[in-house]
Amino acid sequence: MAERLIRAIDCLIEEGGQWQLRPHDIAIAAGRITALAAPGSIAPSDNDNVIDGRGLIAVPGLVNAHFHSPDTLIRSSAPLLPLELWSLHSAAGRERRSPREAYVSAMLGAIEMLASGTTTVLDHIRVSPDIDGPVLDAAASAYRDIGMRVVMAPILADIPVAETLPLTPTDIGGDDIAGWGRRRPLPAGDQMAIADGFIARWQGKSDRIHCALGPSAPQRCSDDLLDRIAALARHRKLPVHMHLLETEAQRAIGDRHPGGTLARLGEIGLMGPRTSFAHAIWLGDADLDRLADAGAGIVHNPVSNARLGSGFCPLHGMLARGIRVGLGTDSCCCNDSANLLETTKWAALLGNLVTAGPERWTGPARALHLATAGSADVIGLKLVTGRIAPGLAADLTLIRHDSPALVPLLDPARQIVLSGASIVIDQVLVAGETVMQAGRASRIDQTAIWAEARELAAARLSDTEADYAMAARMAGPITRMRQRLAKERAE
Ligand SMILES: [Zn+2]
C-alpha cells in the first residue's frame, strides 16, 4: 500500500552510464520508493497523498559529500587567499560557538541545499575550539527539524595547527608569530568520549540522521587519536571522513612520516572502503594506485580547490583507476555556495583544460553520477539514496519542464548540469516528504531563521580584530613557505 503517489512523472534514470528520461508512476511508502510503474497503472488509495507529475522531471536528490555547517553563519567573510592564510581568517568566526549559532548555521546551509536540489549532506562539522556535545546535538537537531538527510561526521583533531605546517626559521624570518595556533586541544580520550556519546544519542534514532567519524586530517591527529578512531569505527561500523593532502604544505609535512601519509593510514586500518577523503589533490600515481587497491573513496571539491588555489585534483586519474568518487561543495567560507549543482558543472568541465582528448573528459553525465550515486556510495549510503529505484529512499528533486534551461529539451542530464543555474525546482522530497516547495522550506519558518542569522553573524563578526591581526602577522611566513615549497618542487 502506497502512502504517496507521484503520477505520470518523467524520471531521470541512469542505465549503463547513460541518463534516460522515463515516464513513471512512483509509489512511496515508509519513506521509500516501493514501485516504478507505467503512467496511470497505479491506482491511488483513498489515503494517498498524490502529486500530479505532469510537466515535471524527477531527478535523484543530490548528495553533498563534503560540507562544514558552522561556516555558513559567517559565509563569505574570509578573503580569497590560499588555504593556510584563508584558515586564519575563517577561524576568526569559529571560536566559542553557542548551540543556537550551530543550529541556525546548519539550518542556513540546509535551506540553501534543499532549495538547490540537494537532499543529503555529509556535515564534517568542526566545533571550535574543541568537539562539544551540545553544539553537535544542536546542528543535528537543525537537520531533523527541516527534514534533510545528513551524515554527521564530527571533526576530531589533537595536534595544534602550528605544528602542522612545514615552516622553517628562514620562512619565519623576523616575524612575530608567538601565540599563533599553539593552544593544546582536548586529549584524544576526552574527544572520543564526546563523539561516542553523540553517536549513541543519534545513530539509529531517525532514518534520516546517520553518523560517521571525521578526523580533521592525518597531520592534525596523533597516532593515538587515529588508533582510537579506527577502533570506534570498527566497533560501531561507522564511515570515516577526513581531509587528505589538500595543499602542497600538507604534502610536505605528510612526507615526514616513514612511507608517507597513506602508508600510515593503511597501517592503522583507515584506508578501506568505509573511508572517504576530501580533496586528495597532492597525490602521485603510486598514491592513487594504493587508494584504488584499498577501495577508499574520494570527495572532489573543485570550486573550493580553485577558490583556495589548493591545486588541481587528478579526477581523471581517479576515475580511470575505478576509485569511488563523490562531489562536495566544502564550506560557505571557501566556495562560497552550498549549491552542489554548480560544483557538478565544474567537475564536468574543469579537467578538459588539462586532459588531452575528449574521450578522457569527465562530462556532464558522469558528473551527475558523481553528484548522486557516487557521493551516496562514498559516504556509506549506497543502499539508501542517490538513485531513483525501488527500495531506495524517495529523495527526489522535481524540476519543471518549463525551466528556461530545459527548452528545448534535447539532453536532460547535460542541460541540468551545464544549464543548472536556470532550472526551476518545483519541490524537493526527502523520504517521500515534501520539505521544500517553490523555494520555501515546508517545516520551518525560513524568514525567521534568516532574520536571526543576520543578527548572530553581525555579532560574531564584530569581534575579529585580534584574529585578523594574527592573520596579518602570519602572512609573511606562510607566503615564504609556499614560495619555497613551489621552488623545491620545480628544481
Ligand atoms: Zn573541508
TrEMBL record:
Keyword Hydrolase listed: yes
User: Per its record, how is this protein called by name?
Assistant: Cytosine/adenosine deaminase
Residues forming the Amidohydrolase-related domain are 57-435
Q: Which GO terms describe its molecular function?
A: hydrolase activity, acting on carbon-nitrogen (but not peptide) bonds
Q: Does the keyword Hydrolase apply?
A: yes
Pfam families noted in UniProt: Amidohydro_1 (PF01979)
Family matches, as InterPro entries: Amidohydro-rel (IPR006680), Metal-dep_hydrolase_composite (IPR011059), Metal_Hydrolase (IPR032466), MTA/SAH_deaminase (IPR050287)
Enumerate the SUPFAM superfamilies for this protein. Composite domain of metallo-dependent hydrolases, Metallo-dependent hydrolases
Q: What keywords sit in the KW lines? A: Hydrolase
Task: Note the PANTHER family from the entry.
Answer: AMIDOHYDROLASE-RELATED DOMAIN-CONTAINING PROTEIN, AMINOHYDROLASE SSNA-RELATED
Superkingdom of source: Bacteria
Q: Which family does it belong to?
A: Belongs to the metallo-dependent hydrolases superfamily. ATZ/TRZ family.
